[in-house]
Amino acid sequence: MARNCGAGDKCLVCLQLMFVASPGAGIGDIAIDDVSVVGGECEVQGLCSFEANTCQYTSPGMLSWNRLIGNMSNRPVTDHTTETAEGHFMLADTSAGNLQSSEALLLASPVQEPMEAGGCLQFWFQMNGDHPGTLNVYVEEETRRKLKVWSMSIGQDLTWSLSSVKIHTAHKWKLIFEAIGGGATESHIAIDDVMLSHTDCPQIGACDFEQDLCNWKNVLDPNLDTMDWNWSNGQTPSSFMGPEVDNTMKSPQGE
Known about the structure:
It is a single chain. The chain has 255 residues and is an all-beta fold. It has a domain at 47-197: Jelly Rolls (Sandwich). It contains no helices and 12 strands. Strands 3, 4, 5, 7, 10 and 12 form a 6-stranded antiparallel beta sheet that branches. It has a 4-stranded antiparallel beta sheet with strand order 6-11-8-9, with no helix packed on it. Strands 1-2 form a two-stranded antiparallel ribbon. The relative contact order is 0.16.
């Protein structure tokens, strides 16, 4: 919706941003939070789920990584973010008919700020097929120094797996995912929920739930559960009240 600006405005046309919530067939809710509109280009985000777009990740060449949805031939059944067939991820088709053995497909991030004090890369990946090929991860600094920081050549079937990699760079840099063909008749390599942070990598499998959920999430399959775990602190509003303090901080403020 557009309207004319008032006399004190510095533009000819103002835009009004509207959120529209439509009723669904069952019980549910829709919530939004922390909405801001600023001028200039969008900042590079630390987390990319590939739901809205490719987050400025680029894949050069005739054969490339593609942003796709699941539940089709030779790709994940669901994405990792939404755990549905409508969710998006980035996929490299490493099948022999698409990618010859030892050929590579590259996926590069936008330029990142230096991480002189160290940082962490976390991402979810899926490698399916008898010989899915190899997934390599590189850090390429603006000096053209290229360092391999992670590699995997073992198939994970149709399961999303989490990886954490320590990052240390003195210059601006790019993150590069490289998928190399393994010669299988039908295979793929997919990534999702790529997270870059200027903090140390958490120990996988350990979580005190103070800062966040550490990539733990509620199962979305209604056939497996009917209620959700809630991230909270202090006593709960239920009749059973719950613990008065957490175990980490021994405080009502602890999560």
